[in-house]
């Protein structure tokens, strides 16, 4: 069960926006994964604090939460009454085109401002994408990888606060700590109020009298980052892994972006993967194919002894159940399909030719059986399954 958001931040239910911001920044400095990596629970606590702050710092979401709790937020407060222009697609766009965004000062009808500018407060971190190359075995069974990349990380000099002295954080006098300012616009339809980011504080709502020398007040620095990622068993090329909160750091304790790890799988010298099945081709001599043979066949789990029945035909496929790739986020595994290729001697001496001719004369047509579909058709059938 989710904890109460006010309890998470350690503030009272009548706390104002500045108290909520102050409490969150204090927690962000203590819990941010890039600063406090020794505590295995710090990342979850940081996410919990960030979720609480995103709700309580947004007046509309806070009203819904105060009235309906977590369930109200999950359901979108359908029974809360009132409406916003988001309920009428295109309506906000109409007013935005007429008045340039932010008409009526935002929220005059219970919704968000018409403008789509960045919300007030420090800028959140960017989502980042990196690529990792795996072997087929690593993709099949999973692996832990440390990924190195360049990105914004939390400033260690100030813990992401933007200043080493919290008392130097002051409410912006121009916007009153709201991060946005209002201007009056006159149109053919009358006078309207437009909101926009505060030019003095950069929409953060605060100014710093003594900014951190390492990050110059941003609370983050661009540097080499290292993140350990757990690659799940069964992942395939072209898929990606989302690592929440490990992308670019936000300004002054704002929410970090997510890291997206795109997977590439290097070609394998023996196996070819199709979904969760593995294809392997084995060569039999024509004698082995005719009389049967037991051969050592490589699999993802190691070598196995596999018996081929007498009369094995070129293009036959022998299935090794459960020897393929584990199903991603599921139970069981795919199969390994062993494609048989039959080798025919390229050169024969007179004695060998005579023996084969005698063998051919001794065989009746019925011993060859009916004509089967060719190798290419068998492969097409296998790939289409």
Show the helix and strand layout:
Elements: H1 5-9, H2 17-31, H3 42-56, H4 59-75, H5 91-99, E1 128-134, H6 136-141, E2 143-154, E3 169-171, E4 180-187, E5 190-197, E6 206-208, E7 220-231, E8 240-243, E9 259-265, E10 272-274, E11 277-285, H7 286-291, E12 293-299, E13 302-308, E14 317-320, E15 336-343, H8 350-362, H9 375-384
Parallel strand pairs: 1-9, 11-15
Antiparallel strand pairs: 2-7, 3-6, 4-5, 8-9, 10-11, 12-13, 14-15
Distance between the first and last residues' Cα: 44 Å
Share of β-strand residues: 25-35%
Q: Give the overall average pLDDT.
A: 81
CATH superfamily of the largest domain: Urease metallochaperone UreE, N-terminal domain
CATH class of the largest domain: Mainly Beta
Number of individual domains: 3
Strand order in space, largest sheet = 10-11-15-14
Which descriptors would you attach to this protein?
single chain; 385 residues; alpha+beta; Helix Hairpins; HSP40/DNAj peptide-binding domain; 3 domains; 4-stranded mixed sheet; 3-stranded mixed sheet; 25% helix; elongated
